[in-house]
Amino acid sequence: MARITLDHIRHAYGPNPKSAKDYALREVHHEWNDGGAYALLGPSGCGKTTLLNIISGLLQPSEGHILFDGKDVTYLSTQARNIAQVFQFPVIYDTMTVYDNLAFPLRNRAVPEAEVDRRVREMLEIIDLAGWAKRKAQGLTADQKQKISLGRGLVRNDVNAILFDEPLTVIDPHMKWVLRSQLKRLHKQFGFTMVYVTHDQTEALTFADKVVVMYDGQIVQIGTPAELFERPTHTFVGYFIGSPGMNVMPARVEGSAVVVGGETIALDYSPQVKAGDRAELGIRPEFIRIGREGMPVAVNRIEDIGRRRIVRADFQGQRIAIVASEDAEIPAEPRITFDPTAINIYANSWRVGREA
Amino acid sequence: MQKTWNNKAWFLVLPVLVLVAFSAVIPLMTVVNYSVQDTFGNNEFFWAGTDWFEEILHSARFWEALQRNLFFSFIILALQIPLGIFIALNMPKSGIGVPVCLVLMALPLLIPWNVVGTIWQVFGRVDIGLLGYTLRALGVDYNYVRDPVDAWITIIVMDVWHWTSLVVLLCYAGLVSIPDAYYQAAKIDGASRWSVFRYIQLPKMKRVLLIAVLLRFMDSFMIYTEPFVVTGGGPGNSTTFLSIDLVKMAVGQFDLGPAAAMSIIYFLIILLLSWVFYTVMTSSDANG
Question: What is the DSSP annotation of A60-76?
Answer without folding.
Answer: --SEEEEEETTEE-TTS
